[in-house]
Specification:
Order of helices and strands: EHEEEHEHEHHEHEEHEEHEHHEHEHHH
Number of helices: 14
Strand order of the largest sheet: 3-4-2-1-5-6-7-8
């Protein structure tokens, strides 16, 4: 049986996308996963490589930054060593090394291995994303030309979370081969609920790292117009915060709400945000809850319009957005949206058919049919 070394990089072992790829591929391959370990206990066996990233405890800012630099390099070197000396046939990359963004690809190819590049982000923008303009733009240009284009060329299979990101790559002539589209499908489906059993509430699933200043006026206006607002995964003062919930519990809460709102602050020139396809988009639909998506999320907006599973709104136009919410909550219109969700939600759900299609596509693109 052929072997895969899968780099999760900063993703934990239970990351939905990483865990899904392990389960799909271990039916045909021996899979060893590198992931971010929570504590300083070395794990390195046939199936797991847990790598701990030590955090600097230095008080001085400069000392802390210097210390963090060397600690991260130590983390990356452990992965580099496995790529250089480990026993595998396929290198599957879920996350890009900060110190060795190209070297891991080159070493694997030099050793005669196949490389699968699963792009969670648009890396020319995501890499060193803390940089401000104009340095961020210079970094993006240099990364595209000097690193990203070579990463793609060295890959035997390229996977993208978003069709919009794939189209952007093609438009910039960074890659000419097929990019396999594998979105963040939901892992769980809630049985359809009758519209009468839905609460007149808005569910907002967010992360603590996202700024939502421009979303607050809309949330306040929704509250003033009779909608209760429930927050999952973060805390927003003045609204009911449910905190972080286990996946199925989160899906149950989503299913109770009338709408799911997807919006946060970002620079619309950032491709990885404008064309993002986050878990909560697919989860909302598979929870049977219509989605209200900010129009700046171009890829999600396109899917909403295509399938009729919600509406596209302009969060900067609060009165117009409120009108959309009020109109969509009317019985006839709301039932129309729920019917669309019932018809199409299998397209947003990860099932055995999609898993088999993904596995077979990987085997085909890596020319491994005769080696199974």
């Amino acid at each position: 049986m052929k072997k895969i070394f899968m780099i999760g990089y900063m993703h934990p072992k239970n990351d939905k996308r990483v865990e899904r790829s392990v389960k799909a591929l271990e039916k045909e391959f021996e899979v060893k996963l590198q992931y971010l370990q929570k504590n300083d206990v070395l794990i390195n066996d046939g199936q797991n490589m847990g790598v701990y990233l030590q955090r600097s405890d230095k008080k001085n800012i400069l000392s802390r930054k210097t210390d963090s630099f060397f600690l991260l390099r130590k983390f990356d070197r452990k992965i580099l060593e496995e790529v250089t000396t480990g026993e595998y046939d396929i290198l599957y990359i879920h996350g890009i090394s900060i110190f060795y963004p190209l070297k891991l690809f080159r070493i694997a190819k030099k050793r005669g291995k196949k490389v699968v590049f699963d792009m969670h982000e648009y890396y020319p923008q995501d890499y060193l994303s803390y940089l401000k303009k104009p340095f961020s733009k210079i970094k993006e240009y240099l990364y595209e030309k000097m690193i990203f284009k070579k990463q793609l060329k060295l890959s035997d299979m390229v996977i993208s979370v978003s069709k919009g990101i794939s189209q952007h790559i093609y438009s910039k002539n960074l890659y000419e081969q097929k990019i396999y589209y594998l979105p963040n499908y939901a892992s769980y489906c809630i049985p359809s609920k009758d519209a009468r059993k839905k609460e007149k509430s808005i569910c907002f699933v967010g992360g603590t790292s996202r700024s939502i200043k421009t979303v607050l006026p809309l949330l306040k206006a929704l509250s003033e117009n009779g909608f209760s607002v429930k927050i999952i995964g973060t805390h927003i003062e003045g609204f009911e915060s449910l905190g972080f919930l286990a996946y199925q519990q989160m899906m149950e809460k989503l299913s109770e709400s009338m709408f799911s709102l997807i919006a946060y602050d970002f620079d619309p020139t950032m491709i990885e945000y404008a064309h993002s396809m986050p878990n909560k988009f697919f989860d909302s639909i598979c929870a049977g809850t219509p989605v209200m998506v900010d129009k700046r999320f171009k890829s999600m907006a396109s899917e909403v319009n295509k399938y009729g599973v919600g509406h596209v709104i302009d969060i900067h136009n609060v009165s117009q957005s409120i009108n959309v919410f009020m109109r969509s909550s009317q019985k006839r219109e709301y039932e129309r949206i729920l019917n669309h969700i019932a018809v199409y939600r299998d397209d947003f759900f990860w099932n055995s058919e999609k898993e088999e299609r993904f596995r077979n596509e990987l085997i085909k693109q890596l020319n491994m049919e005769e080696k199974r």
